[in-house]
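During the second year of the project, the team shifted from modelling isolated chains to modelling whole assemblies. The rationale, set out in the original proposal, was that interfaces cannot be judged from single-chain predictions alone. As a representative example for this report, we include one of the complexes processed in the last quarter. Its constituent sequences, exactly as entered into the pipeline, are reproduced here:
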Amino acid sequence: MKQNTTSSDWIARSLRSVWHPCTQMQHHEEVPLIAVSHGKGPWLYDHEGRRYLDGISSWWVNLFGHANPRINGALKDQLDRLEHAMLAGFTHEPVVELSEKLAALTGHNLGHAFYASDGASAVEIALKMSFHYWRNAGHPAKQEFVCLQGSYHGETIGALAVTDVALFKDAYGPLLRAARTVASPDARNARDGESARDVAQRAIRDVEALFAERADHIAAIIVEPLVQCATGMAMHDPLYLQRLRELCDKHHVHLIADEIAVGCGRTGTFFACEQAAIWPDFMCLSKGISGGYLPLSLVLTTDKVYEAFYSEDVTRGFLHSHSYTGNALACRAALATLAIFEEDDVLARNRATATRLTLELAPLLDHPRATHFRQRGMILAFDAVEPDPARAATFARRFFTGAVENELLLRPIGRTVYLMPPYVLDEEEIVGLAARTRQVFEAVIAA
Ligand SMILES: *Cc1c(COP(=O)(O)O)cnc(C)c1O
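Output from the structure prediction step:
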């Protein structure tokens, strides 16, 4: 890598050779591609020293800033010991310690950890494990999965089948095994006079009716606890999760909590499920678990599920593996991330940060062109009012471009502008993030 290569060189070369994710490549004729040279704390820098405040934690993965000295130190140490070893027939310190720590964080309700590399694979694992559990337990007819309207659980074929975001799903519909979709408890669905709890109660009746009729065929329901992120930061009352747990127990259906985005402190508690005081049968984690450093995902499950696979018979075992399962470097990054949670009072600091951000964004609460301002933990969002459909369709792209011009990385979902920053913003960065968000919003709706 030559020192003096400019951002525009890297961009031109990237556009020739790299097929970027979730991107209509032609849009890069108008929308800038940014060549990142290095990162520090919540900032990303290009080759000319232009900087961008990473307001979305680099797709929701980064918790404690880029090039975090504590995580860097742990990884450098790990690198000289063991980078990776296969996890079938072998084990190692980082994977054992991480599994024990996560089990402890669930109060040993979810004491068995199965590893993969990306979030979608964790979802695939939870679905397969649930299906196989029921077969091992003598209920082979339980083969169906239920998801929520607006759900997002990843884009591999199994995970996409339980995803309900038209943009990602429609093009691949014929490849997918149909799942059943129930109402979303999204608090924005409130009718006149309804509270978020009322919406949750109403949504749960949909699940109740489905389970009453079809539970014999249903293996599991999968849910993003508290915030359905990828559909546009749709938030719901914890009551929904409590009622869902009760219904799953009553009808013998597994509850899969996809905490890939909402876990690791994002919603204000370490796990989102804690706010409903429930534990699922399967919990998927990824994204923030490695501090945003390395691909790592895992599924946590119960003694009961684990024991249903424990046998002399190979085919009763869980038949699933990935080459990088339990990668030592990724596990070590996760241990360093969990150590920061233990050593610093991260959740308390986040409460203060979220309160400050909300205060700084307060003018949006009664802004004529903004609706549904909402916040849970370190997720803040509002929806732009863009009555003209053509303008609404380009809102996200226009906002992204305006943000980049203001040293800000924000990437709205449709008309939903959201902040999901790393947990390390200082006072100046908090004020700057809020001020620039408002400034860009005003410019984009006025243009
Ligand atoms: C991002 C995400 C996934 C998929 O994770 P990948 O690592 O992108 O495959 C699954 N579920 C939720 C809730 C997510 O936000």
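The first strand starts at residue 38 and ends at 40. The chain has two domains: 7-67+346-446, 72-344.
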